[in-house]
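Hello again,

I reread your note about wanting to compare the complex against the isolated chains. To keep things tidy I'm splitting this into two emails, and this first one only covers the full assembly. Below are the input lines as submitted, including protein chains and any nucleic acid or small-molecule components. They are followed by the predicted structure of everything together. The single-chain runs will come separately.
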Amino acid sequence: MILDFSSSLHIVWALLPEIVVAVTGLVVLMLDVFQRGSRSAPSAPWVGPLAITGLVGAVLANAWLLTLEVPAQNAQIAVDGFRIAMNFIVLGVAIFGLLYSFDWLNREGQFTGEFIFLVLMAVVGMMLLGGTRDLIVLFVAIELMSISVYVLTGYDRRSRRSAEAALKYFLMGAFASGFLLYGIALIFGSVGSTNLSLVTSEIALGTASNNPMLFAGVALLLVGFAFKVSAVPFHMWTPDAYEGAPTPVTGFMAAGVKAAGFAAIVRFITIELAPAAEFWEGIIWWLAMLTMIVPNLAALAQDDVKRMLAYSSIAHAGYLLVGVAADSPLGRSATLFYLAVYAAMTLGSFAIVYLVAGKGDVRSKLSDFRGLGWRRPLLGAAFVVFLLSLAGFPPTGGFIGKLYLLSAAVESGESVLAITLVLTSLISYYYYLRVIWKMYFEEAPESLPTPERPGLAFGFAASIGALALLVAGLFPGHGLRTASRAGEDLVPRAAVVAPGAAPSARPSGQDPAASRASSNVSEPER
Amino acid sequence: MLSLPLLLQEAHAAYEPILPAWILLLPLIGAVVNGVGAFNWRGNKAIPSIVGPAAVIGAFAIVVVNFLAMRAAAPHDPAIVSLWTWMSAGDLRIGVDLQFDQLSMLMLLVVTGVSSVIHVYSVGYMREDPGYSRYFAYLNLFVFFMLILVLGANFAITFVGWEGVGLCSYLLIGFWYENREFASAGKKAFIVNRIGDFGFLVAMFLVFVHFGTLNYETVFAAAPAALAYGGAVVTAITLFLFLGCTGKSAQIPLYVWLPDAMAGPTPVSALIHAATMVTAGVYLVARTSVLFAMAPVSQAVVAAVGAGTALLAATIATQQYDIKKVLAYSTVSQLGYMFVAVGIGAYTAGIFHLMTHAFFKALLFLGSGAVIHAMHHAYHEVHSHEDPNDMRNQGGLRRFMPITFATMWIGTLAISGIFPLAGFFSKDEIIWYTGAYGYGILWGIALVAALLTAGYMTRLMVMTFHGENRTGADAEPHLHEVPAVMWIPLAILAVLSIVGGWVNIPDALPVLPAVHALHDWLHPVFEPARGILEAHGLHDAHSSPIGGGEAMWAGISTVAAAVVIILTFRALVHRTWKPAADSTEPTGLAGVLYNKWYVDELYDRTIVLPLLALWRGCWRIVDAGLIDGSINGLAAGTRAVGWIGSLFQTGRVATYMFYFVTGVLVILATFLL
Amino acid sequence: MSFFESHWVLTVLLLLPLAGAVACLFAGKDEAKHVALVTSIAAFLLSLPLFWVFREGTPAIQNYVSIPWIGQWGIAYTVGVDGISLLMVLLTTFIMPMAILGSYSYIKRQEPTYYAMLLLLMTAMIGVFIALDMFLFFLFWELMLIPMYFIIGVWGGERRIYAAIKFFLFTAVGSLLMLVAIVTLVYLYYRQYGVVTFAYNDLVELPVTRSAQFWLFSAFALAFAIKVPLFPVHTWLPDAHVEAPTAGSVILAGVLLKMGTYGFLRFAMPFFAYAATSDVVVYTILTLSLIGIVYGAWVAAVQPDAKKLVAYTSVAHLGFVMLGLFALTSESIQGGILQMVNHGISTGALFLLIGMLYERRHTRLIEDFGGIAKVMPFFAFAFVVVALSSIGLPGTNGFVGEFLILIGTFRTHPVAAVIAATGVVFAAAYMLPMVQRVLYGPVEDEENRELTDIGLRERIVLLPALAMIVLIGVYPGPFLEKTSASVDALLQQIEMRASQAPLEPLGTDVRFDHMPILGVDED
Amino acid sequence: MNLDIELASLILSAFLFAVGTAGVLVRRNAIIVFMCVELMLNAVNLSLIVFSRSLGLEAQVLVFFVMAVAAAEAAVGLAIIIAIFRHYEGVDVDRFNLLRW
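Full-complex prediction:
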């Protein structure tokens, strides 16, 4: 099928996955409104499966997008490999996030449809964020995602921490939105359009380099994104929000919001604003450096695993920023790949933390993990896999991901970033290993209750997650190929053609031989 | 297997070593059998009693056959038996090769011969010991390694034996390991020897680098052409080799281990620390005579160290009370003589003295062993814990142990150089050549040391066998002569101590027939070295530094020795000693000598203790402090930085927003300013 | 062609312990050790024929197999052995059954996991030695850390956590920088030839510019130096050795340390021949090795803890090996390789022996013993033999290795060899006092009087080591012959590449002349 | 003296934004902080409207979206503030530091 954006219907087709998720969300919400449920049980027992089904449907719809041909990429939404890959990641995060969260919702007696609705709405925001090419849609998407997540953060109304986290996140988020919006306004003021693909020539003509308004716009836009991906120094909300939020939500936030944020950075900063590279290169470089160093150090001082993981997730934003800073197809592919891997490991880790923490999420201190490995061998093993992957240790996906980022940095000549990446990883070994040593090297005291057995959905998600990480570590070929293709397949600015011009072929539609096995590294002389 | 007569017949054509591997294998098999026995049939004394001595006597028999064959063939070149390739890497090829020439044959005879006697003696001496089987395992193993040392056809194989005998020495010194001091003595011997071995190693490296091989034949053949006479290289090689010799043969400065080594059973002292192992250094110098001959500086060093050691040890020996310590210092002193000989280039004389010394010093040690055996037995009977070795506890033993008494006097006269015993000929030859080759000072030292030798040996005999018995009234009745299995070896050695010198009788002596048997025998071995020496101006002076010919000085020295013996005897025989327990430590010069010139203490204070302190410092300060400290400090610092950093996370939104805005302003500022 | 000459034997060897590890996890508490023992012996028997099947006289890689793996990055599953790695593999398979059997009564909890970890470690170690793809190599290199971390951390002594984390972090510092270097190397290769590959055979032919060689070499060298360990990055070793359970110490000393020296030989030196043979590098490493030899011996001599003492002796012994490697002579490198084997056997056996004492007395302090020879004669015998091997007495394996190293080193760096030779003296100064204080003297402690001599199982553990000590000591020929062709070719290779190293990046398609050393023997 | 009205409006907008930012930084009452954020958003709206005069209507569209989003944010935000008020009996943001370090 050939998409032609002159027809509005075709825009619906282009947005099909998002629409499926949104509709599912609305259905869930309606069900919740009209169902009478007790406060301690799900309002409708099958909203969970329903949501999962909807998400799987969205996955299928997303896969269907792959078959489309798009001669002219002139809509506000891109239909390219990058977006589809991001959609897969976000949908995966949603599916696994939900699977992991059922146990928690049941345990805490807070299984309501609105939780699922909020998750689905956030997912819609995230998906749009990865696909849109228009600043207006960008703003709406980011707010859709953020507002849903604010609520999710404060979902546990009985918890003081949850409320505090929500307030902090909300105030900071709204504050950051102001800057983001101002950035959008300034960019618009400089280039005269919200659809950046249409303003190519304006910047390319060279008027940009001494245009302070454009610079300020780009900088503020970047700040807005940096806040979402919690890059230092805009990360301060993260540990608090992550710690206070209900743990499954934390995992979902850490994986999904970050993925969406990076998608936006990659698309808007490195692609759409590529001609303004001189503005953002340095900023991203410094963000990457700081974001690798600061949280890794701070995590050393944590004795709460959940908060430690929160810092760790900030650190991972730093690693991902290295891929962005490399500013090459290889870097973008690496970022994509790492996002997928990161999502799997961070979701799993937070899920295990809540399982160990017990009702009310009370036991998430390091000492509460003593002896876990021997008491719950499978859970322990899965956690070891997640932690080793977070640490970037072979044979896990985390290692391949870091190797990918590393090669991107080396290829772009960013050796300082590369070395910082490995040295900060080294620091991170310490605090990841510390969890392992608590789990295996120390005995659990009698008073420490054994974590309850996880449910079926949890077990399924955790085993798939852990196995996937191992597979990604040992046989990453397929994943690498996909990431490589998606990373190169971003709708390029130059592909925007005037209506009526000859359709240009999409890169991903080209002969598959173009991305042959050995071409993961881009041209050396960029 | 070929029959013996046939072998002897063939020998005329050319010398082929007969059963060469078995010379080594027999002691090795003995060691293994006894070693297994030490674990598995510890109570059984029959097997070790047979296997131990038999292994060595068997080897001796093969050696004798070989000796006869070699004598018949009179080969000029050594016969090399290659067993297998030991190491082969890069340009280095080291074979397990055995060299049969006149020198090694002589050594083989001495080693296996004396060993056989001592093994038999040990059957009696060690009979009561619970470690009987283990003892023979060690002793057999020692013979095995000693034979390797002697037979090695290259430096590396010699070194195997060299360190192997050191190992056995270590094991045997510490044989009674439950005594902490004995075990320490073994350790000391090993470590001090290792210092010498370091020299040997470096010498080997030098040889390999300059010759590309370690084989004696090749090296000696190439040396005169490859190295400059008196050059740095050959001097270095020989000096490093000599460092090895000072360790193994207990010369200054590494002699300190040997007196302590008396902690081992007395037959061990006789075999290892008198007759065989400690002479390995002399053997090595003789073996590498070509190299030494090319290095006049090294020769002078060897001779000077030898002379110095001879004198120093002799002085110490005069004031020792432990019968074995006296003999130990005597050994050190006699080894000094041998080094003087090989140092000045009188190789045959050195080897000659090595041989005779093996006889009479083994005899003296075994005799002292008999004394100790008797003393120990007596004290054991009365449950006394007095020291049986201390001569102050002995005295008057001639009444109880006549055979021991007689044979030991023979040994004493032999070592003192009284005509016509073995020591007379060998020692006289050394002293004479020292003077004749122009080493005047050394000659004087050698003469003085010879007189001291006579003195302290007489003192030993007097204190042990003459005068009143001081063993104690209750123990005295239990003193008696040792059994036949022990005195027969004494007798054999006594005979050898008498006749052993007759193989080499100089022309100069009147009346006596000139005998050159040893000289002729060793001639092919030392010919190249002598050639080099003579080419560089070595000449026989035919008169001593202060005049007088060989015959005259031989007469003077033997008469002087006799005079010393008589005077010492008369001076001491009526003197009364208090038993050791009642004695006070000697003072004055006697005290200094009694305390061995305080050399051990000196080494302790200037080397051992500072080193230990340095090592502790390395551990505590460098390792634990500096390196680990900085690494742990780095880790702690990182964590501290992390902790401080996390304090910025105040929990207050206003702070967070402040950082946020700061970040924004910094970014904007970078471009706008 | 028999199975053992085939391409697959190495893969089976690699997978067998892994399968055993899984089996251990499912085995019962009491069966796990038997499963592990059988697996390790099977692996040993499987590897043993390689020793005879191996064709000497050629530096070519044998039993070579290469299967595309991650095509995207030009990564392949490539394994094979040459003479050097063959000995290392055999050392590993030889040590493991000893270590496992030696753990039988030592390990009393979580046995299935313990034995699974040991076998996992075995796979990783074999993998390191046979991998000929930089990715595969790095994978195994890192993989080995995890089981070791667990072995020290779970079954170790009192300060096990400190030791485990120290071990892990020390090693990780180096390996991570090495990872950057590997990636850079791959990138340089790509820039030169336009092909992405992690294959050893390809990368080794890349002419790296002289200045880049130093940086990359440093990164590799740091990783390997920590593992060796060279002074001053050795301090993880005493802690890890002391705290690890017996088998852990045995494997650490026996195999893991060899990975460092092997890494130099296999990777750092041929990859960056110019840097590796430059004066500054050679003198630095020789100096550090000498410090290691002398300093290791000194510090060992004053240790009150027997295990720590042995740990420091490893520093000294590995100093010898490093000295041999960087003396760059055929004799010294072959000696170094042999010494790697020797050290593995002797020090492994020493740790086993100390472990046996520890099992009986629960102390490792030398002063707590004394007179052990009286109550444990066979133990004393074994202890003395192993100690003598450790101090390099001729007739034992230790001498052959040290001698070759020293004599080879003397050819190129006589002063270094002479200084190193003093290590021979110091070796006696640390080992013999320990032997004396543990074995000799009167039995003063009543507890020591009750000790029982080592039994049949323990004798079986020790006998192979004792046999090898003597065998290599008197007849090292078969071992040296294995390595000679590889070492000679390696030396030639290094020399040639050092001289050809370019100053500026070369145009595409310029390669080092091809040398047979890395050629693959396809027969 | 003919100050460009557009430039003046932009400066005003920036000033308002700064005021909002400053308010966020200095005020402690969560509701006032939130109102300051709203002020920032509206300051941006002002800019957008100015831009739309010359650059097109897209900006005005965005303004509507911003208003809608702000409304949604207000709804959620106030709900959160109520929730936290229940726990803390107050809305002083400095008191909410259970989560820190």
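For quick reference: Chain B has a mean pLDDT of 87.

B.
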